[in-house]
Design brief:
- The protein has about 210 residues and is mostly helical.
- The chain contains ten helices and no strands.
- Helix 2 (about 40-50) crosses helix 3 and helix 7 crosses helix 8.
Amino acid sequence: MAVKVPPHRSRRVEQAAQTRRRIVAAATALFAEQGYATTTLEAIARHADVSVETLYKRFGNKVALLEAISEPAIVGADDGTEIFDRTEIARIAASKDQRDQVRQLAAFSRSILERVHAVYAILVGAAAADSRAAELTSQHHQRRLQGQRRYIDLLLANGPLRPGLDPEDAAATYSALASPTNFDMLVHDLGWSADRFQEWLEHTLTRVLLDDR
């Protein structure tokens, strides 16, 4: 039997979620426009139309806001979903063909990189100005590598990698190719379309990760 949530509680929960979204959106906009170092929590509170006390109560500091703006960009949702809970990952795991898996992984990575582009620029700027932000950025790099190591495990479930390539090196190779830096250079600096980037990533990953068979 489903438990009924009192209407007033539901409204409070939704209002709190809306307030959080406004604060995160304000922080994202101001960090991008003014830079992390020069943006104050007071300015973010004004932009979000909340009190400074509310902002401090919910986040406490700018590094917590960095985490709050980066997580939805990575996952593609702000409901607490983990990246490996995405339906795309389930489809990749269900495939029994490594080349098809690489094709799907290239598309999945492209979608993440499109979302995190602006946030990654904020993280890089923040890391240069704040040691705590630098630590957070480093944690994100490690998390990305660990996730890509799990991608390699999905491939290994269907067969070996290219001879001489161990899983850790394969994950590092994937991480280097499907990096925000590469995406930014190829798409935003050199003018590639996101489709072209995805095609390049698929072909390159296939050649460097899989046996030529």
